[in-house]
Amino acid sequence: MRLLVGKVAGKQAVFAVEGENAVNLTEAVPEVGSDLMAMIGDTAVLEKAAEAAKGAKTVSVSDILPALPVSRPPTIICLGLNYTDHIKEGGYEVPDYPALFMRGQQSIMAAGQPMVRPTCSEKLDYEAELMIIVGTGGRHISEANALDHVFGYTVFNDGSVRDYQRKTHQWTPGKNFDDTGAIGPFVVTPDDLPLGASGLKIESRVGDEILQSSNTGNMIWSVAQTIATISEYTTLQPGDHIAMGTPPGVGHAKKPHPRWLKPGEVVEIEIEGIGVCASPIVDEAEFATQAVGQ
Length: 294
What we know:
- The longest helix has 11 residues, at 223-233.
- A hairpin with a 2-residue loop joins strand 2 and strand 3.
- Strands 7-6-18-11-12-14-8 form a 7-stranded mixed sheet, covered by helices on one side. Strands 1, 2, 3, 4, 5 and 15 form a 6-stranded antiparallel sheet that branches.
- It is globular and about 55 Å long.
- 46% of the residues are buried.
- Helices cover 17% and strands 33% of the residues.
- The chain has helices spanning 25-28, 37-41, 43-52, 84-89, 162-165, 223-233, 284-293, and strands at residues 2-8, 11-18, 21-24, 59-60, 65-66, 76-80, 99-103, 108-110, 115-117, 124-125, 128-134, 150-158, 160-161, 181-183, 186-188, 201-206, 209-215, 241-243, 266-271, 275-283.
- The two termini are 35 Å apart.
- It is an alpha+beta fold.
- The protein has 2 domains: 2-66, no CATH class; 76-293, Fumarylacetoacetate hydrolase, domain 2 (Alpha-Beta Complex).
- Keywords: Metal-binding.
């Protein structure tokens, strides 16, 4: 099932998407609510919504303004250094244990919303990533059972301010600038994708310029391994987001010069079978002016 959270005529709802058309599930089944959390927390709601979508009236996907799939994700955990060639281009050694960091809610925004280049740096980079939305939570989840805990998969752009990322051994500042992590717009349930969302083409681009191009089958730690590893130290909650790391081709590693994102550009992240997450790049001062005018 392909799901989209967004607004039509100012009202936020959950939609089931088929091609260029979508069914308003919130209108058909009120207990669905205005984001995915009700369906994540109760499979019966998901099943009822899927049944209601059959033969229902539709709206055009182009008329829906995307919102975050989960308005306030409980926890956002990100995996770094998960593609060997990306590790090498960054000058790191291949680790025995995944590099893990967290993002705060202020750092994320919906697909289609501006990605903000901060006033203090011009080194805004892109990172195409597969993202998991956790369905059933738990602790000490086995790798064999881990995929049963996935509600769906979406697209993530882990926008990174590289000079701030490299200020310390901890990556927190560079990974948590406001409005730098784009999520969505579509969430696809596991039954519509290969096992563990493996073997999918993943790409980033600006216009005709291809920045990254790889395959999720090249990840060092699979979705199942990652869930098992994270649940060793923390209890995963329904609605948690897990970002699976980026392939090679990031801007800071481009030769002979780094390739930073610039205001006026639109960066697109696409994962086969899931969709395109597009973000216009704006300067922080311009973004602040727009916010005041709204």
